[in-house]
Amino acid sequence: MSSLRFVQVEPFTPVILPPGGALQPGPPGRHLGHYPSLPPGYQSMPPGHTAHAMSPIIMKLPWSLPQPPGPAGLSPSLAAMSLQSGMPEALRVVNLLQERNLLPPGPLPAPTPCLTQDLQRINCNPEVFRSTLTSIPQTQSLLNKAKMPLGLLLHPFKDLSQLPVVTSSTIVRCRSCRTYINPFVSFLDQRRWKCNLCYRVNDVPEEFMYNPVSRAYGEPHRGAYVFILPAVYLFVLDVSHNALETGYLHVFCQSLLDNLESLPGDSRTKVGFITFDSTIHFYNLQEGLSQPQMLIVSDIEDIFLPTPDSLLVNLNESKELVQDLLKSLPSLFEKTMETQSALGSALQSAFKLLSPTGGRIEDPNQRANAKHLSPATDFYKKLALDCSGQQVAVDLFLLSAQYCDLASLGNSLIFCFLSGAVYYYPSYHQQHNPAQVERFQKDLKRYITRKIGFEAVMRIRCTKGLSIHTFHGNFFVRSTDLLSLPNVNPDAGFAVQMSIDENLDDTQVVSFQAALLYTSSKGERRIRVHTLCLPVVNSLSDIFAGADVQAMTGLLACMAVDRSITASLSDAREALTNAAIDSLACYRQSVLTIQQPGLLAPACLRLFPLYILALHKQKAFRVGTSTRLDERVSAMLQLKYQPLAYAMLMIHPTLYRVDDLTDEGALNINDRTIPQPRVLQLSVEKLSREGAFLMDAGTVMYLWIGRNCNPSFISQVLGVPSYAAVPENLYLLPELDTAESQRVRAFVGWLKEQRPFAPTLHIIRDESQMKSSFLQSMIEDRTESALSYYEFLLHLQQQISK
């Protein structure tokens, strides 16, 4: 494939499922100082197509190009800077068995690396680029001794309000390691700069010379070259009887009609449609036809395209035909009794249609029964490899009340190779489950209208002496540090594990750089460059002081998902527990200077055991509680795919009391007053029958109304006279002209705005069926099959004391 071939296709295919390498076994038992490793979930695949040459025309850089300080110009005090000076708060000793109220009153901030103010100011935003350890050990042996994972969590295509764009025909890169110029390089003089990753000295191009007026490097000449190809959207829809019974097709067609003008692209954007049951239906929407033409292919064993040149059409030229098709599709199949669903053939058809350009697909079908987390068939894996080679991504919209074999669909097609996502809506039905219908509508609108990048590749580089050994996320690994992403979107997260190959004795700081090369929906070839700088330390206390407990939890969750699939769920759970045991044991034995009784942790890791217990009780890893296989696999996929901020809500939900909201300490955003109630522990002892409590679990929210809740709150917020009058399936907060209603709606709305997807809100009473799901998220309480938080702490203490 030519490096100048820019193919961007956005075949969106709502896939609606109708209702209906290897690990080496560890040593027996547990040995202190060792926990079962979570080996790479992805092996480097044989190279398919040559990666794009990393020499695009437009480069996006998240920095404003001031004259940057580099390693050669660091403050002399940095090398001697000790994280222990004055005993920082991060190292304050906490006895977990005695201190119960460990949760901060609000969101837990990311730790700040111990760098000079100049470096802090230009460092990458932790929402985009975050390390599990904000102080990097000098040696691998020191990292091994600390017993904490070293890795990076990335959100490279995140929606950012301010992202400076450098437009130039010359992209400045290191001649040796190909690192992009960034704020942490050293300028030796006006014509030479030193790479902060491999330390090579490079020449500064003329257009990047020092500007004495602006006192900045990098005033590139204008005159970028832009190669443009049209965006293409392909919609693949299940029209079998079981799928249509859910009512999804009406919702989908109306949502697409409402958002047709908002599809990313330009005047040359193309669209196409495929529907399927036991046969495959193509649609000729060529300009000049009086109405859409359906073309049926019944030989699903040998799929062919009936009219290849008229199945993808210009949206502007054929808009009326597209609108007519969307209006007629629901009624066209409403009387069908066909229950067969030729998913595999539909996917193959979409692949044939898109393979000349690349694109995006989604689909559904009920497959053979699978009893395990690994795929029951390799059909989708083979198709995934074909799609990846042609820059085709796959997204799955699964709307079903029955088993879908998501283990085969997700793990083979999405999970391993392609840059798509799974949108799962259990018990979806247009009439019986309006909350899921609302969520589907909002998710679909976000999916159709969000920013997107096509034919993307991402390379992660690091300072000499460091290396990457495992990737986590949805992609195809082309080489040791290059990921192929047929499509990239702002809602996707990635993680990598790192190791230290060479001692960093003479290094004060290290840098990590993620470069994402993609084609925008407008046809521009762009690069996003994110660079993170962190200090190097030589003591265990400094390493512990820089631990990022949420980043560690997110990386361990990804590692545990891989372990569950390649080994077993019990192995993954054991490894999670041992990660907490080993890190706290190391802290007690090697960092504490005065031994004390109890289960001791540094303040920065005080929530680590709680988060590990939360992972044990998360749908992805819990045992002893009835969990549908599809729901478990969906939770695993989300933990691998979601950026850290969203994944943490799934792991450890937040609980608030909302019947006593006030304006004290409230935020003022766009003339809206947003109350800020305190975060409560996830325990029923924090609930009160006299109150109302909101739980935010990421993809779902619960508003629990106590039996003796103030009737005034119930009437002024829910619009009903009493507790008994609260409807069973209430999922919307009515817009009432009361101060209480405005406060609750403002707070709930603000929480929803913090994420791109639409969480479902369930308003529940003591008698509600959803109450059990609400109580299962009370992480600190004991259940029939899981320890309470206090019991888990005692278990950790017992293991550490052995």
Automatic annotation (TrEMBL):
All residue ranges annotated as the Sec23/Sec24 beta-sandwich domain in the record: 453-537
InterPro entries cross-referenced by the UniProt entry: ADF-H/Gelsolin-like_dom_sf, Beta-sandwich_Sec23_24, Gelsolin-like_dom, Gelsolin-like_dom_sf, Sec23/24_helical_dom, Sec23/24_helical_dom_sf, Sec23/24_trunk_dom, SEC23_SEC24_subfamily
Membrane topology recorded in Swiss-Prot or TrEMBL: Peripheral membrane protein
Keywords carried by this UniProt record: Cytoplasmic vesicle, Protein transport, Transport
One of the protein's GO biological processes: COPII-coated vesicle cargo loading
Domain Sec23/Sec24 trunk: 230-361, 367-448
GO CC annotations, alphabetized: COPII vesicle coat; cytosol; endoplasmic reticulum exit site; endoplasmic reticulum membrane
Tagged with keyword Transport: yes
GO MF, any single term: zinc ion binding
Domain annotation Gelsolin-like: ranges: 674-747
Signal peptide (residue range): none
Highest rank taxon of the organism: Eukaryota
Boundaries of every Zinc finger Sec23/Sec24-type domain copy: 171-207
Stated family: Belongs to the SEC23/SEC24 family. SEC24 subfamily.
Protein name: SEC24 homolog A, COPII coat complex component
